[in-house]
Design goal:
Blueprint lengths: L1 H14 L2 H11 L4 H28 L3 H18 L7 H15 L2 H13 L4 H30 L3 H16 L26 H5 L2 H17 L2 H11 L4 H28 L2 H19 L5 H7 L3 H20 L5 H30 L1 H22 L6 H28 L10
Helix pairs in contact: 1-6, 1-7, 1-8, 2-3, 2-11, 3-5, 3-6, 3-16, 4-5, 4-6, 4-8, 6-16, 7-12, 7-15, 10-16, 10-17, 11-12, 11-14, 12-13, 12-14, 12-15, 13-15, 13-17, 15-16, 16-17
Length: 424
């Protein structure tokens, strides 16, 4: 568990404050808001194009620790290069796209390592602890960024990303290979050896509903952090205050992740995830109601509720829906692809809205999208906790009923008169 927690800590520290710092860095370089939105979207596009492939790859290979280390180092290299190259669209957009492609491996690999280490029964609680460390890493990244920006300038953040990437890569080898159940890491249990087909997986109504709601959730959520960072700057806030938008949210995410890990097992996945979906439109709407940069930073703390819950429960949902069937990492890749789609489209929309309509209308638009996401989740996604056990009980009940009918039929054949009524 020490190795798994360390990976989550340093991986989060690696990318925790990059987007708001990048937005501010490019704005200082004279970029327009819509160009900044495109650059941010390209990082999401790199993740989008490879996310499902990354999940399938994670299901098929066994050297997951080495693959994570390579992805972490390459991501760090891309961000370290940003202040060293010309601030042209060619260089910045290309580096962001490649960093997004490498980051597509993080979600399925971290989920696979956790499942291989602790199994299905302990996965949700373990995910809660891991996400707590993940958000602690984001807090460390935000505090470090505030200090670096104050004394060394905003470009120093990108060098800190490189150091964190090396630490994340080294941490993965704290997990011993012998402690990992590679068969279990795919979602299969002891009695199964072959995964279900892609067609069967994608025909599941719960999978389809959850994928759609995740897309809309991140379509509304992805652009809001860089937009609020720009909003703080527009309202006269300092660079240090801008980086604090990350810090306030992460301080909330640590206890919320532990809450989700505990109550996701007690209340069920849907009840806890619903909190995340409904807090998102509330959070976005509040930004349009304030005009003080410090108030915006404090309100950003509401992000910790939605993000803290989502990071834990989405792993449990993928595990529930594939338990005994396989393709756990592939489904995690599908969910992450939906997330990445939102990460690509959301910043594009936000850049256009900001450029032509301003901050308040942008917040109103994304609050509306977040509300639609919550409605789809509530109407189409069922409770998945113990879903397989419930299905097995239902199948057993049908078999018992069928057996009883067969017995009655045999008795009727053996004693025809007993089947006749007195009036016959």
């Amino acid at each position: 568990m020490i190795g798994l927690n360390a990976i989550n800590f340093f991986q989060a520290e690696m990318v925790g404050v990059v987007l708001p710092a990048l937005a501010a860095y490019l704005k200082e370089a004279g970029w327009r808001y819509d160009s900044i939105g495109i650059a941010t979207a390209l990082a999401g596009l790199g993740t989008l194009l490879l996310q499902t492939i990354a999940g399938e790859m994670t299901d098929r290979i066994s050297s997951r620790r080495c693959l994570f280390a390579l992805a972490a180092i390459f991501t760090g290299f891309c961000f370290v290069a940003i202040p060293l190259v010309p601030t042209s669209r060619f260089w910045i957009d290309g580096l962001l796209f490649m960093s997004g492609a490498a980051q597509s491996l993080f979600a399925p690999l971290l989920g696979a390592l956790a499942l291989a280490l602790v199994g299905h029964e302990m996965l949700n609680r373990t995910a809660g602890i891991n996400q707590g460390w993940n958000h602690a890493g984001n807090i460390a990244a935000a505090v470090t960024a505030m200090v670096l920006v104050r004394f060394l300038g905003i470009s120093s953040i990108f060098y800190a990303v490189g150091i964190s990437s090396l630490l994340a890569a080294a941490s993965v080898f704290l997990i011993k290979q012998n402690d990992l159940d590679e068969h279990l890491a795919t979602g299969l249990t002891v009695n199964e050896s072959d995964p279900i087909s892609w067609g069967d997986l994608l025909r599941d109504r719960a999978v389809l509903g959850l994928t759609a709601s995740i897309f809309l959730f991140h379509l509304a959520n992805a652009p809001i952090l860089p937009v609020t960072a720009l909003y703080v700057k527009k309202l006269g806030g300092s660079d240090s205050l801008m980086t604090a938008t990350v810090l306030t949210a992460q301080l909330v995410m640590v206890p919320v992740s532990l809450f989700a890990g505990h109550y996701g097992d007690r209340w069920g996945r849907k009840a806890v995830m619903a909190i995340a979906f409904w807090f998102l439109p509330l959070r976005i709407l509040t930004y349009a109601l304030v005009a003080n940069p410090k108030a915006v930073v404090w309100l950003q703390g509401l992000d910790g509720i939605g993000a803290g819950i989502y990071g834990v429960i989405v792993i449990a949902l993928a595990a529930d829906l594939t338990r005994g069937k396989g393709r756990f990492n592939s489904l995690a890749g599908v969910f992450a692809t939906a997330l990445a789609c939102g990460g690509v489209v959301g910043p594009l929309i936000s850049g256009v809205l900001l450029q032509h309509f301003g901050f308040k209308d942008t917040f109103y638009a994304f609050a509306g999208l977040a509300t639609i996401a919550a409605l789809i989740f509530m109407s189409l996604v069922p409770e998945t906790k113990d879903r397989e056990q419930h299905l097995q009980h239902a199948i057993s009940g049908v078999r018992i009923a069928h057996s009883q009918c067969s017995v009655k039929a045999r008795r009727s054949d053996a004693h025809p008169s007993s089947a006749l009524t007195p009036n016959s």
